[in-house]
Every structure is written in C-alpha cells, then in structure tokens.
Design goal:
CATH superfamily of the largest domain: Periplasmic binding protein-like II
Oligomer: single chain
Number of helices: 11
Strand content: 15-25%
Pfam family, one: NMT1_3
Protein name: TAXI family TRAP transporter solute-binding subunit
CATH topology of the largest domain: D-Maltodextrin-Binding Protein, domain 2
Radius of gyration: 21 Å
CATH class of the largest domain: Alpha Beta
Largest sheet: 10 strands, mixed
Number of strands: 10
InterPro entries: TRAP_TAXI (IPR011852)
Keywords: Signal
Helix content: 25-40%
Length: about 325
Amino acid sequence: MRISTLAASAAAALIIASPAVAQDDRAGWPNSLTIGTASQGGTYFIYGTGLAGLISEELGVNASGEVTGGPVQNATLVETGDHEIGLVTMGPAYDAWMGNSELAPGLEHKSMRALFPMYQTPFQVVALASSGISDVADLDGKRVSVGPAGGTAATYWPIYFDVVGVSPDVSFSGANDAVGQVKDGLIDAFAFAAGVPIAAFAQIAAENDVNIFAFTPEQVSAILAERPELAGFDIPGGLYEGYPDAQPTVALWNFAVAHQDMPESLAYEITKLVMENNERMMQIHSTAAETVAENTDKNTFLPYHPGAVRYFEEIGVSIPDELKG
C-alpha cells in the first residue's frame, strides 16, 4: 500500500513539475529556440539570456540567448528564420520593415511580428574624467566607440553627431571591450545605448574617475526635431556612482519580435509568461519595470503576432486592427 502511495505521489510531482502547457497545445513547437541579443556587457544580453532561462524553465523549450550585433542584425535573423526571437529597438525595426536595413538593404522585413514591449533605450556617453570630455560637443575629433556595428548605438550616434555638429573618429566594439579601451586610453569615449543602468558603465564608474553624460536640453530639442521616432527621456539619478542627478537624453522603445511562422500557441505562452511574471523579469534586469501590457501602444507600425494579440485581448488590452498580424 505504501509503495502505491509513493508511486502516486511521485507521479503527481512529475505532473506539477512539468511545463504548464498541455501537450496538445504544443503542436509545431521547436525543441529549442534562439534569442538574438547584443554584445556582452549590454542590457540586451542580460535581458535576453535571462528571458531564455525563464522560457526554458517554465515552458520546457531549450532557449538560449546569442551574442549578436544588436537590433539591426536581430531583425534580419528573425526575418530569415535563423533566430526565433529577436530584441529590437523600434527605429532600426522600422527601417528593416520598410526595406531600409543597413544589413539587408532592399529586403522588406515583413515576416517580423511583435510579441511584447520591453523598455526604453536611452543614449549616454562615458569618458575618463582626465580626458576633459563632458559634453557631446567635446567629442569633435576624438576617438569614440559607438558599440557594435549594426547596433542601435552605431545606427543613431552618427545621426546625433551630425545634428550637434561634431566629427569624431568613430569605431565599433562590444560594450565590455569599449570600456576596456576607454580605461586603457585606446579611445577617448564610449557612446552607447542600452537600458539603464548600463552594466559596463556602472563597472567603469565604480573603478575609475569618469564623466557620464548625455545631451543638453538644447541638443535634445534639436535631435527630436530631426527624428520623430525618438522620445525625450530623463535618466534617473543615482544609477551610477557619483551621479545623483537626472540627465536629459533621447530614447527609443524596445520590443521582442518573432517570425510570423512561430506557432500561435508558443507566441501566446511566451507573451503570457513575460507579462505575468514582471517581478521575475525585474530580477533579470530592472528595465523590465517597463515590460508591461500598458506599453503595447508604444508600437505604432509592427503587427503583433496572433498569439500575442490573443493574450493581450484576453486581459482587456486592445490591439488596433491594423496591428493584428
């Protein structure tokens, strides 16, 4: 009798431990999936690898985050089906949607579908205090990394340099490499874009006397007049050692996207998992405070995956008809 009881208990435990999605609803699901992130040391990498772990744990799909060049490359990797999920900022995503991707010019990325909003990406710069660089205007003629080629920072910082009227010597590198180059004097500054706090900025600020800055209010106004897809953003004070005050800058929204051929049930479960576990997501990265259903309206052009639409409408969030994929 006791053996039967133990067997029943073990069976029940297995049922409880197994993924919550019924096998009948998993038709067409892949055994594994890849999430395109960005360089190590940036927010995308932390957010994406954490998301992959959550999917693996809760949905029983072997998910992994992969280092990439960032949103421009992620959009194309999803479009071509090489990655199942990509993390993108909406500026590069719009360019890709319209066929103006720097990586795949002429290819309209019409297979991309939005899953859920992530957070805003503001733009900041770090330089050693000894350099005397404390304003974007000071970057004229200086050696400046703008992150990995194809990333959001690499796409937008040259635009900002034009608006502000400076001509730095631009190079490309991942976040960890770039801060190392700043510390070693190989470059003068690192101009980046990521959810704050940027891990690489926090690290260099804790170890060195640095200047971390963004834009003046006048520079913000000039940039917004040129690029309407951007929004003004105040970086909260206290994120980096020695910086108690807020800083004005500009920002782009980030979304997780998938290919239109992702099974509807999988897109539904991933969206539900993220939206209903905000505390877990914030443990991955604090930027996930903005990973909430109320921010679905920050996407104005990219159709949502039918699975995501089904979830959002179930919880009473309306998706415009023109954005139902």
